[in-house]
Amino acid sequence: MILKAKERGNAPQLARYLMTMRDNDHVELHDVRGFISDDLLEAFHEADAVARGTRCKNHLFSMSFNPPAGANPSIDDFERAIEQVENKLGLAGQPRAIVFHEKDGRRHAHAVWSRIDADRMRAINLSHYKTKLRDVSRQLYLEHGWAMPRGLEDRRLRDPLGFTREEWQQARRAGVDPKELKAVFQAVWQASDSRAAFEQALKERGFWLARGDRRGFVAVDYRGETYAIARYSGVKARDVAAKLGDAQELRPMDEVKAEIAAGMTAKLQEFIKEAERNAARRSLQIDFRKAEITGRHQQERKALTESQEQRWQAETRRRAERLPKGVSGIWHRITGRYAKLKAENEREALDALRRDRTEKDVLVTRQIEERQVVQRDIQAQRQAAQQELMRLREDVAHYMQHDRHAPDHAPDRKRERAQRSRRRRGFDL
């Protein structure tokens, strides 16, 4: 599993984030340990209250446990992984909460511990926790026989297309997968040996090189979004300066944006809006399909939970009826039979708990597998939309460079746009 962790405060905000359904298909509060309340928000308020007795601000240790794509670990697998982490970091026995999230046919877990040792009223020191978690992550990959990511084998081989939250949000505004954006910049960077070649290759893909306000070299697209060259190309700032020279020789970012805006003729703007409407329509169709299957899965889980609850109550009543009361109960205690009946009831209750968990795990696994089949289809649709948006950027650059100066080719452009329109319709759900 990929393990990500952070020391943090603001427990109520974290509780609300963990229980939100905004980006998730399913959210389940699995376990709350060491708190008075079983409600996550109230439990985290308790953690905040205890931390006020110390000077520790980042009194929570928050982690996510992400299995590799295609793997469907059970609840027991997640719990064992969480126990390995808390034993490795010295958090065993600390107040803890576990929340499961499911999204796009994959299930992952969040575990949050209080770092405050209530007996000593001091925060537990988690020195070198990233190194320790990397060791646990490697061990989990080996135990489950999963293909280990290159970055875990050697830190120098980490995914160069990794992106930050800021980059993800920027890509979402532009309607493009952040990995695809980074792949474009990195391919252009590797294929260019000079600033002129780099600038031309960027322009062919719908990006204009400019001088940024804070960053030296940036790229600007037709929407006015700005991309830092070093960050998106995956290189250091000094390497950018060595290849591209002095950023002061470039035009300012605002001037480039103004030129792009001036070149966006009414016809070109209409073409852009049409392509973006098509992408938005695909997105709505995908959202509808996801909502339909998510709603059905939620109903199936609700029905199973209600059925298990009714069965549990009936079995609990039967176990309680076995225990004798009154004088007979006293006699059974004296003879030791009461203790035997009680132990038998406890074993049956534990077996019933395991049975219910297994039934739920089977249902969730089946639903995840069904969701993964749908997700592969959805992913294909999204990739088609991403490719169309990337082609749009190239079309914008081509139009601005050539079409304004070649009015005799209007019939050819009309045929090209008709072909693009037919291609887009071919990707519809």
Automatic annotation (TrEMBL):
Residues 396-419 have a biased composition (Basic and acidic residues). Pfam families: Relaxase. Residues 25-146 form the MobA/VirD2-like nuclease domain. It comes from the Bacteria. Residues 420-429 have a biased composition (Basic residues). Coiled coil: none annotated. Residues 297-317, 396-429 are annotated as: Disordered. Signal peptide: none annotated. This is MobA/VirD2-like nuclease domain-containing protein. It comes from Paracoccus alkenifer.
